[in-house]
């Protein structure tokens, strides 16, 4: 399977191979349980389910984020960093891919750099994409099984105020493809 076909695979999984699609909305406790096949995550439900999966991760967390903004006030994105640090401390392999813009005036680079420095303090390796190509992904893979993909940026606005929609898909096959995609977008790695 070639890497550019990832969106086609997502559509295939959503339309043909998944018997049920649940929607997480409001305070419905059942809908806020871990995704069992495909879970539609609307607005701040994404943050709630993502945090639950990060806290319960056993082996690996991979993130590809266009923007991961933990400044000037960390808020929800800062809480994600703290949860990633806790996961790494308990032995979960955590890796984060961030966008590196080619535009010197773009504040995105500054925000991603601040978050990268914060993650590096917890010995979480960071990778930046090539400045010649925009990685606009909002993708998380947890334990080679759960794939979060959609419109949510890792910003306070994206996690709490904007109208956003993403899905959590329980699929080891899709998780493997998503992991390969994240690894292929890594242009240069930064470690402590």
Molecular structure report:
This protein is of the alpha/beta class and about 190 residues long. It has a single domain (about 5-15, about 35-190), classed as 2-Layer Sandwich (Endonuclease, Chain A). About 40% of the residues lie in helices and about 20% in strands. It is built from 6 helices and 9 strands, in the order αββαβαβαβββαβαβ. It has helices at about 5-15, 45-55, 75-90, 105-120, 155-160, 170-185; strands at about 20-25, 40, 60-65, 95-100, 125-130, 140, 145-150, 165-170, 190. It has a 9-stranded mixed β-sheet, with helices on both faces. Helix 1 runs antiparallel to helix 6 and helix 2 runs parallel beside helix 3 (about 75-90). It starts with 5 loop residues before the first helix and ends with a strand. Residues about 1-5 and about 10-20 have low confidence and may be disordered.
The CATH class assignment is Alpha Beta
Strand order of the main beta sheet, please? 1-2-8-7-6-3-4-5-9
Number of strands: 9
Q: With helices defined by DSSP (H or I, 4 residues minimum), what is the helix count? A: 6
The number of domains is 1
- N-to-C span: 34 Å
Radius of gyration: 16 Å
Ranges where pLDDT stays below 50 over 5 or more residues in a row are 1-5, 8-21
């Amino acid at each position: 399977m070639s890497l550019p076909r990832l969106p086609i695979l997502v559509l295939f999984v959503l339309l043909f191979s998944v018997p049920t699609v649940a929607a997480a909305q409001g305070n419905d406790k059942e809908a806020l349980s871990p995704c069992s096949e495909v879970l539609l995550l609307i607005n701040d439900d994404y943050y709630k389910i993502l945090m639950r999966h990060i806290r319960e991760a056993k082996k690996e967390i991979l993130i590809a984020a266009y923007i991961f903004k933990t400044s000037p006030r960390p808020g929800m994105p800062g809480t994600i960093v703290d949860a990633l640090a806790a996961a790494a401390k308990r032995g979960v392999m955590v890796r984060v891919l961030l966008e590196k813009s080619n535009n010197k005036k773009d504040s995105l680079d500054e925000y991603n750099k601040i978050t990268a420095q914060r993650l590096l303090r917890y010995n979480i390796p960071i990778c930046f994409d090539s400045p010649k190509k925009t990685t606009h992904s909002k993708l998380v893979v947890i334990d080679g099984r759960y794939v979060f993909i959609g419109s949510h940026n890792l910003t306070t606005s994206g996690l709490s105020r904007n109208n956003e929609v993403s899905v959590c898909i329980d699929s080891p096959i899709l998780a493997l493809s998503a992991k390969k995609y994240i690894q292929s977008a890594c242009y240069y790695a930064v470690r402590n």
